[in-house]
């Protein structure tokens, strides 16, 4: 098989790779905020429950979580989450990344000086207004480098979908590698990921610049 | 009376910080609170502005009860949240560390609370913000961010922000303590101008000559109690209490 054919075949999976990537981000970024708030809840039971959930999701491999979401329901209850593997893949990725993002948000929120809350409180802002208008915009700026880190990792983690044979770029590459007994598809995959992440770096750099107007 | 605080008690865990404090502020009064650090003066201000909750006692704004201790009980009860929020509109608070919102420019720092909290008309608020900026001597800085301003300028923005809510009383918590000595003057000048306009103010400060010049009344606190209060000439010039004299002597040294 020529290099050109390999690249073309693997490119067919890029749409699915992007689907995992964008859907995971769109779902996990907002859910992470909710999880962070629950984790910081003054109710000890709620905060401990979420502390535990986060520690399990961060303490076990994403690959295992992916297998559990994809095949677990079948073994336990005799049905699958969905015929379309994209759905269990995105569910597994989203909850895993939401727990990482939650801890990043929590760090950011806790790093905010208490004076910001007090100023807002004295001015009569409600708790929700304070959080949305005063705290979160500043938190986003503070945590952006950590978020970028996670996004870069997510790009590479999409390859884990091969464990459930979801036909994204890396899965196709691996199949070609097996059938052709060739290492070349892996090199191609590496180049794809590298380019993808170069774009991510560029984009996040732009966002960081945009938030550079204040300290 | 704009503010009445009666028999205020406040402790942090076992540490009693305010022990039966009673004082009131009339319309147009300028009251300075002085005293050594740890005397409870900042805590008193934070209780008056609801940043801390009192353990017992009574707080009234313009005759309306914000917090009170029912007869026979020893814990203070606060008014409904909505009522407390309404009362927050009656006062403005200026912090030692300014606490401006760094992601908002000067205009937005001043305008955001009137728009978001008080839901007032934008054109009107904008007009007032521009007038406040002029009053604070900050013309041309409308669209600067706090990080681009000196400490003195930031504190003047903070004063404008506190004034934008059209408060009946302004509280200052050591407004010049975080400033370089050469920048305190510009902030004190603004406060002095407000005093001349008969703005009601309570100022926690270490600037004795300033307190002497602007105040109608000076309160000296130590160990969680009001040791002495009266006209600045007496409290700062010829105090009746030995403890006040001691404090002022150490201070001028």
What is the helix fraction of residues of chain A, given as a range?
Answer: over 70%
* Structure annotation, total helices of chain B: 9
N/C terminus separation of chain B: 37 Å
Rounded to an integer in angstroms, the radius of gyration calculated over CA atoms of chain B is: 18 Å
Average residue pLDDT of chain B: 93
Instruction: Give the helix tally of chain A.
Output: 9
Total strand segments of chain A: 0
Strand content of chain A: under 5%
Shape of chain A: flat
Can you summarize the main beta sheet of chain A?
none
Helix content of chain B: 25-40%
Helical/strand content category of chain B: alpha/beta
Structural class of chain A: mainly alpha
Could you characterize what this model shows?
The complex is a heterodimer of chains A (215) and B (253). Chain A is an all-alpha fold. Chain A starts with a helix and ends in a 5-residue tail after the last helix. Helix content of chain A is 80%, strand content 0%. In chain A, helix 3 packs across helix 5, helix 5 (86-110) crosses helix 7 and helix 6 (114-122) packs antiparallel against helix 7 (127-157). Chain A has helices at 3-11, 14-39, 44-59, 62-77, 86-110, 114-122, 127-157, 169-180, 184-210. The radius of gyration of chain A is 20 Å and the shape is flat. Chain B is an alpha/beta fold. Helices cover 38% and strands 26% of the residues of chain B. Chain B is built from 9 helices and 11 strands. Chain B has a 6-stranded mixed sheet with strand order 7-8-9-3-10-11, with helices on both faces. Chain B has a 5-stranded antiparallel sheet with strand order 2-1-4-5-6. In chain B, strand 1 and strand 2 form a beta hairpin. In chain B, helix 3 (106-116) runs parallel beside helix 5 and helix 5 runs parallel beside helix 6 (181-196). Chain B is globular. In chain B, 43% of the residues are buried. The mean pLDDT of chain B is 93. The A-B interface holds A 113, 115-116, 118-119, 121-126, 129, 133-134, 137-138, 141, 213-215 and B 49-51, 85, 88-89, 91-93, 95, 97, 99-103, 112-113, 116-118, 145-147, 161, 165.
